[in-house]
Amino acid sequence: MTALIQIENVSKFYYMGGETIRALDDITLDIAQGEFVAIMGPSGSGKSTLMNIIGCLDVSDEGLYVLDGKHIHSLKDSQLAEIRNRKIGFVFQNFNLLPRLSAYENVELPLIYRGLGRKQREPLVLQALEAVDLLDRRKHFPSELSGGQQQRVAIARTLAGDPPIILADEPTGALDSKTGVEIMDIFRRLNEQGRTIIVITHDRQVAEQTKRVVRFRDGRLVH
Q1: Domains of the chain by range and CATH?
Q2: Residue 137 pLDDT grade (very low, low, confident, very high; cuts 50, 70, 90)
Q3: Burial readout 13-37 (b: 16 or more C-beta within 10 A, e: otherwise)
Q4: Is residue 113 classed exposed, middle or buried when 0-12, 13-18 and 19+ CB atoms within 10 A define those classes?
Q5: Among 82, 119, 208, 220, which is least packed, fewest CB within 10 Å?
Q6: Contact in structure between 32 and 206 (CB atoms under 8 Å)
């Protein structure tokens, strides 16, 4: 497997009330193409800060981040936005679905932003909904779906753009344990199809369903 994500000596600082908070402290981590990784730690451990850096939502104050051969620090904001649009799919704890749009329309929306025409969008949306077993619920609105179904719509929305990397931030946090296992099974299937999956979690049981666990505490890599 080729190295897809290379993080070397990365640190991130925040300044609060005249005090410097070191959110990440000299992190070095490689994630290979096709890996299924959990980044695990308690609240405030730095795992979400690292996710934001990996996802090109933020940049580090020190160190080097290379994504698929590109040095992220040398890129402009417009180039970072293009990477997020093409290479990285995000799945969040609270689903982030638009309540007035159907499941189909929620999945379709990012493709509209990409400028794809209706004939191009339709097969991508249907394929993504089928991948999460929700084709029969495509006309339902979020309020008509269970929490697990809403999360599957959110995953389908990510899949429609065909990103090679999926970053999932506490994707089972708002779900019961049985539904959480079902969501992790979807990520496992997507990983078997070749996607790189990175799950941010504080839950040991969720982390153990991945193939590799990276542990954080107080901004440092401990395992």
Answers
A1: 3-221 (3.40.50.300)
A2: very high
A3: eeeeeeeeeebbbebebebeebbbb
A4: exposed
A5: 119
A6: no
Question: Per-residue pLDDT tens for 58-70?
Answer: 999 999 999 999 8
Q: Which two tokens stand for residue 57?
A: 């939502």
What is the rounded distance in angstroms from the CA atom of residue 53 to the CA atom of residue 39?
A: 13
Cβ atoms of 132 and 184 within 8 Å: the answer is no
Cα R_g (the chain), whole angstroms: 18
Q: Show the tokens assigned to 115.
A: 């400028």
Per-residue pLDDT, averaged over 107-115, amounts to 92
For 157-168, the pLDDT digits (tens) are 999 999 999 999
Q: Where are the beta strands (DSSP E) in 83-194?
A: 88-92, 165-169
Task: Tally the residues of the chain.
Answer: 223
